[in-house]
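Why do we bother with a discrete structure alphabet at all? Because it lets us treat a fold like text: something you can write down, compare, and reason about line by line. To make this less abstract, here is a complete entry for Fe2OG dioxygenase domain-containing protein. Read it the way you would read a sentence in a foreign language you are learning: slowly, and without expecting to understand everything at once.
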Amino acid sequence: MAVNYEDQATLFNFVVKQGNGVKGLIDSGMSCVPQPFVQPLSERIATPHARTCEAAQPIDLSQLDGPRHKEVSKQITEAAATLGFFQVVNHGVSVELLELLKTSAHKFFAQPPEKKAIYLKEVSPSKLVKYGTSFVPEKEKAIEWKDYVSMLYTNDHEVLQHWPPQCREVALDFLKSSMAMVERVVEVLMEDVGVRLEEERMNRLMGTKMVNMNYYPTCPSPELSIGVGRHSDMGMLTVLLQDGIGGLYVKLDNGDWAEIPPLDGALVINVGDTLQILSNGKYKSAEHRVRTTNFGSRVSVPIFTAPNPSEKIGPLPEVVKHDGVARYKELLFQDYMNNFFGQPHDGKKSLDFARAD
């Protein structure tokens, strides 16, 4: 199908509304980045050769159950309180499953556009599955160079009925085999701020679980585009599988950006806004972004854990008592979520919605 790259409305319809995605542009023979995808100078990632950060050294989670428990717990809490990102190994998810996930992601996005477009938000047969391009393309100054499918977890039966058949079983295995690790990490983080969460509260604070598969097609001019713009995640913790291509950048305290390099068999964990709010700012939801590349199509598979929409979130009383001040107000998570998804990516601006007056 011939695509008019110059007509922005036609291009937007082709990519976003009809569900051809960025991959559809590449497959149509496009050899330059169309104007709607060209980022403002301030948002471009100047070079793929950024410094790597301390998250290059993974934390061995198997050591939490041995004599090094205190040392490993400290590594986790320090990383969460400073960078907001860390990588883990011996996390309980098999390397074979991680490889299958990457294969399944490529398999889903390799389908003809019409097979993926059935999951577009407006027509998807299930509220559990959404396919699309970019974050909120209707409101963005420039569209992000990413296609994705997001899969919301309710229960195994519904998942196996409604998630896409190309990836449903492997994505469900990933989610279920990761949750014990996620809960253990949250326990370690809570313990360090003097909080012991009851099982029921833990379940409510991580009652929303979603697996995404992200696809970043090869880009002819990576210096003009971005895969994902500057943002923090809204939930508790995010678990991310990277492939070997790389491109995940985190913002440091001094304003520089550093790459979190892919490590075979490792998973990346990052703090979300909810955990920053609960900890009254001790743990940092890290601002991060993703660059594009011209030497291969990248996939990543994050698990997002977040509160139930009906849950109230705010600084935990034990932490406020220790700190002497509440830096965030209490609010309904549904309201926080509506604000988060109602705006384009803009660093950590979404957290302003929760700040104490």
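What the structure line is telling us, in plain words: Residues 134 and 144 are 5 Å apart (CA to CA). The longest helix spans residues 168-192.
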